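Module 6 notes. Inverse folding takes a fixed backbone as the condition and produces residue identities as the prediction. Think of it as a translation problem where the source language is geometry and the target language is the twenty amino acids. Below is one complete input and output pair. Work through it position by position during the lab.
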């Protein structure tokens, strides 16, 4: 399940830019335009991260932040602000923000900050399992049906990302973004090559295939039922 991000930003151009970028990176994003709407949405639903503008039309963003912290909302808050003075940044962090980025900003920097806050806020599972495939994340060991499987570092990284998102279609862009930690730039073929390597190691010798091709999207890992969904093929 993808992380849920709430964007509290009244400038529509920035809100759209941030929302589309984060959705493209695999996050579920909701946008509200006022401080009151933001407080209400956090009260009504759980979010993994909040992006908060300071200059809102109704309530100052710092007041929104203070309200959330007083209500024991603990999810990370990343402030987006045109106020770039050191005193402003320090004050925002003292009030309870987890990070602070000044406008204008490059999306790649924002995405890196988002990833870092989400990693900090969500402890990773030490053991992952899909069907009879097991990954020990502490010892970096993989077994299927009890048999050890040796993986190269990038193969391990792709498999771990897939196993942390079982049943979720992952685009090639998302795989590159998480495993190579760089912008997607024509690396479609290299993703396909690594998927073939993974299949040769974890699927070829077993009747039940775990790595599925999702037509028009990319790949996902799932312990298939007897009959796979129509939108999915094994190849």
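Target side of the pair, the amino acids:
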């Amino acid at each position: 399940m993808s992380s849920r991000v709430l964007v509290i930003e009244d400038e529509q151009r920035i809100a759209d830019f941030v929302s589309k970028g984060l959705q493209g990176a695999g996050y579920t994003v909701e946008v509200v335009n006022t401080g009151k709407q933001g407080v209400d949405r956090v009260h009504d639903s759980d979010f993994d991260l909040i992006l908060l503008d300071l200059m809102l039309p109704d309530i100052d963003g710092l007041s929104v932040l203070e309200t959330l912290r007083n209500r024991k909302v603990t999810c990370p808050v990343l402030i987006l602000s045109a106020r770039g003075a050191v005193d402003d940044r320090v004050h925002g962090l003292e009030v309870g923000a987890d990070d602070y980025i000044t406008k204008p900003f490059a999306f790649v920097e924002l995405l890196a900050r988002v990833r870092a806050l989400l990693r900090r806020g969500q402890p990773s599972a030490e053991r992952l399992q899909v069907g009879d495939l097991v990954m020990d994340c502490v010892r970096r060991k993989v077994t299927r049906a009890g048999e050890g499987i040796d993986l190269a570092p990038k193969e391990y990284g792709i498999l771990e990302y897939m196993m942390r998102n079982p049943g979720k279609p992952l685009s090639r862009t998302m795989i590159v973004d998480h495993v190579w930690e760089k912008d997607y730039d024509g690396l479609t073929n290299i993703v396909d090559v690594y998927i073939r390597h993974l299949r040769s190691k974890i699927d070829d010798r077993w009747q039940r295939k775990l790595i599925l091709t999702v037509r028009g999207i990319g790949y996902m890992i799932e312990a298939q039922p007897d009959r796979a969904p129509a939108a999915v093929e094994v190849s």
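Reference fact for the lab report: The chain has two domains: 4-121, 127-233.
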